[in-house]
């Protein structure tokens, strides 16, 4: 598959049984990405057992073995491309670890397709996923009103669902230009790659055209340089060599750089990747780089390297949006768990719980609540016990997210939404 196209991470969200797996299978099939052996196997089985239509959920089941082996392999296998983009389908909400992965950036989605069964409309998980998607920073959504083959669908029914979903999306904070609607049949393929005969009243784009029409997320290359440091070496004859993965921006020899929160500055002498010197490195590159003017003991793991004219932000106190995943009791002001952000681990005190939101709708349920517990979403004020680097998630998403751990568990995930004075 051509990978020179811009890459997009896509989440397929929606209530159970509304057709998410079927749609994923269908998208892979229509774009020629279901392995031939899978189709052959299915046809053989269908002949032997007399099964009916090609079941796309089955395609996903046949990849289930890989799914069992873990999230990364699961993700690695669900890729397809359209004319413009190369898509990776990221794990869906409801699947284990989805929230954690999205917030920590392991599978941050750039856009989402919300699947709504046209005969059922909005259900509990529809609301939950929509709110989660918005909370986690997904700003573009395609609503696929599914199963249009199922009933005698007419334009009025479709418009009713569209109005209902539109109301929910507005309440959660999506703006009109951020949402597109398309009536589909994931099972039969209507309005996926080609127009459906079942919906003569719909002359808008197909789902694949809508996917092509998504706006491209800002490339991490265009963001300020940020290299979270994993390790620092001192190599005789060379000097100090910090090692880390470039998250955003580009780094070149002779760049003036600053490491925060250590507040040490120096000049890049050389950049190495796979033991070879390179003229520059960018997002995703694991590098070691030699800096002049900084001693090995002056910087450490958890520091972030950036250009001196736009150094990494040291936070003293910040506002965060968090989702409590699991906690045996309640979280109250004063609670001090460990925040894991990029390569740093810093004990931080939740000094105030500003507001608690309904995890299903995003509506503010309570201002300054006394406590929050598992399942709650909240805006909190956080004070790190020592200086740490964190960026506003709107500005540099890669450096704005964190997981909150305590008692050997990830108890919450969140992102920095504001830097308070
Ligand atoms: P998920 O739980 O959201 O992943 O839903 P599935 O993809 O497993 O689908 C649930 C059921 O709905 C399965 O029996 C599918 O065959 C059926 N289904 C999915 N898409 C369609 C569709 O477009 N039309 C019809 N009639 N059934 C569908």
Automatic annotation (TrEMBL):
User: Where in the cell does this protein reside?
Assistant: Cytoplasm
Say where the protein is mainly found. Answer: cytoplasm
Q: Which residues bind Mg(2+)?
A: 21
Coiled-coil spans are none
Q: Does the keyword GTP-binding apply?
A: yes
Q: Catalysed reaction(s)?
A: GTP + H2O = GDP + phosphate + H(+)
One GO molecular function term of this record is: GTP binding
Q: What is this protein called?
A: Elongation factor 1-alpha
Q: Which InterPro entries match?
A: EFTu-like_2, G_TR_CS, GTP-eEF1A_C, P-loop_NTPase, Small_GTP-bd, T_Tr_GTP-bd_dom, TRAFAC_GTPase_members, Transl_B-barrel_sf
Q: Which residues are involved in binding GTP?
A: 14-21, 91-95, 146-149
**From which organism does this entry originate?**
Methanonatronarchaeum thermophilum
The text of the family note is:
Belongs to the TRAFAC class translation factor GTPase superfamily. Classic translation factor GTPase family. EF-Tu/EF-1A subfamily.
The residues that cross the membrane are: none
Instruction: Provide an example Pfam family for this protein.
Output: GTP_EFTU_D2
Role, per record: GTP hydrolase that promotes the GTP-dependent binding of aminoacyl-tRNA to the A-site of ribosomes during protein biosynthesis.
Domain Tr-type G, chain residue ranges per copy: 5-221
Supply the EC number(s).
3.6.5.3
Q: Which PANTHER family match?
A: TRANSLATION FACTOR
Question: Kind of enzyme, top EC level?
Answer: hydrolase
- Give the record's keywords alphabetically: Cytoplasm, Elongation factor, GTP-binding, Hydrolase, Magnesium, Metal-binding, Nucleotide-binding, Protein biosynthesis
Q: Which HAMAP family match?
A: EF_Tu_A
For whether the record's keyword set contains Protein biosynthesis, the answer is yes
> A Gene Ontology CC term for this entry?
cytoplasm
Q: Which PROSITE patterns match?
A: G_TR_1, G_TR_2
């Amino acid at each position: 598959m051509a990978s020179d196209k811009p890459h997009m991470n896509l989440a397929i969200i929606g209530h159970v049984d509304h057709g998410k797996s079927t749609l994923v299978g269908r998208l892979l099939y229509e774009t020629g990405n279901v392995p031939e052996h899978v189709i052959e196997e299915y046809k053989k089985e269908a002949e032997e057992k007399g099964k009916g239509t090609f079941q796309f959920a089955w395609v996903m089941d046949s990849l289930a073995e890989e799914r069992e082996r873990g999230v990364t392999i699961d993700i690695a296998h669900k890729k397809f491309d359209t004319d413009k983009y190369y898509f990776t389908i990221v794990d869906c909400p409801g699947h284990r670890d989805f929230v954690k992965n999205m917030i920590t950036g392991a599978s941050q989605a750039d856009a989402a397709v919300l699947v709504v069964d046209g005969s059922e409309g909005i259900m509990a998980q529809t609301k939950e996923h929509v709110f989660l998607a918005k909370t986690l920073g997904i700003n573009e959504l395609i609503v696929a009103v599914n199963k249009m083959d199922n009933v005698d669908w007419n334009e009025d029914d479709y418009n009713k669902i569209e109005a209902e979903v539109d109301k929910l999306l507005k309440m959660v904070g999506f703006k009109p230009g951020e949402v597109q609607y398309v009536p589909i049949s994931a099972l039969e393929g209507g309005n996926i790659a080609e127009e459906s005969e079942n919906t003569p009243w719909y002359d808008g784009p197909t789902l694949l055209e809508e996917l092509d029409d998504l706006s491209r997320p800002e490339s991490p290359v265009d963001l300020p340089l940020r290299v979270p440091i994993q390790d620092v070496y001192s190599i005789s004859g060379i000097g100090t060599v910090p090692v880390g993965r470039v998250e955003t921006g580009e780094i070149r020899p002779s760049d003036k750089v600053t490491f925060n929160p250590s507040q040490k500055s120096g000049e890049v002498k050389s950049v190495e990747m796979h033991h070879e010197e390179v003229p520059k490195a960018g997002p995703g590159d694991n590098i070691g780089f030699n800096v002049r003017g900084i001693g090995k003991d002056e910087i450490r793991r958890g520091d972030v390297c950036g250009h001196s004219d736009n150094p990494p932000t040291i936070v003293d106190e910040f506002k965060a949006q968090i989702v409590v995943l699991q906690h045996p009791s309640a979280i109250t002001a004063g609670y001090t768990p460990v925040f894991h952000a990029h390569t740093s681990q810093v004990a931080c005190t939740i000094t105030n719980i500003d507001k608690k939101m309904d995890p299903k709708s995003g509506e503010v349920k309570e201002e300054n609540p006394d406590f929050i517990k598992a399942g709650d979403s909240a805006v909190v004020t956080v004070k790190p016990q020592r200086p740490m680097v964190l960026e506003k998630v709107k500005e540099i998403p890669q450096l704005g997210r964190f997981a909150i751990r305590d008692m050997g568990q990830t108890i919450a995930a969140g992102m920095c939404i504001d830097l308070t004075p």
